[in-house]
Predict the structure.
Amino acid sequence: MLKNPFFSIKFLNPWQMEPQVLYRVCFGTSTPTSFQASLLNFRPALLHQHRRHRVLLHDYPAVVPQQESSVRGTYVQGLTDGDIYRLDIFEGNEYERRRVKIKVLEVEGNEAGQGNVEGEEVEVETYIWVAGKDKLEEREWDFEEFRRERMSGWIISSDEYSEVDEARRANGDDPTGGRGVNGSITERLEGKEEEVLKSAV
C-alpha cells in the first residue's frame, strides 16, 4: 500500500503502501489498466509533527498529530473528485480529511529517515484519525509487517478465503474494518459504482 496518502487532487497516503489498495478504491481493481495507472503520480513525502499508529485489533494505520514525529507517506497527484468521494467512503467516520503541509522527498533515505533529502513544501489533504487515541496501539504501524502478513486480504479476491472471511465477519472479527476485498465498505463502494453507471445510461 502507499505508506500514507497525502492528497487533494494532491493527496498524502499515510499507509506507505503499494498503490494496489488505492487502485482498488479508485478503479475497482488492484491491477488497473496501464492507462488507469498512468492517471496517478506517486512521490515519497514526509508529514512532520504527526505519527502513525496501528489501530487496535485491525490491520490498518491511523495518523495523529504528535510533536517531534514524522510520517513517511506518498504524495499522490491526479485524483479526481470521484476518487476522493470513494476514498471518503473507504476511510469512513474514523477519519477526517484535513489539509496539511508536507515535504516532498527529492531523495528517499532508509526507514529511519537517514539520507532523506527534503524538497518543496506542498499543501495537500490526508486522513487524520478522529476516533480516539484509546483505540490505537502505542507502537507505530509497520508497513513491512502489513505487506508480509495482511495485504492479500485487502487486494486479492479469492473464493478460497470467502468462507473464512464470512466467518470472521460473523464473529465481528474483521481486521480490515470492512475495507478488505470482501468487506462491507468494499461492497458499499461497488454498489455506488453500479448506481453511477446506471444513472449515466
Observations:
- The radius of gyration is 17 Å.
- The mean pLDDT is 77.
- The CA atoms of residues 6 and 12 lie 1 Å apart.
- The helical segments are 20-27, 34-38, 81-91, 143-149, 152-155, 162-170, 184-200.
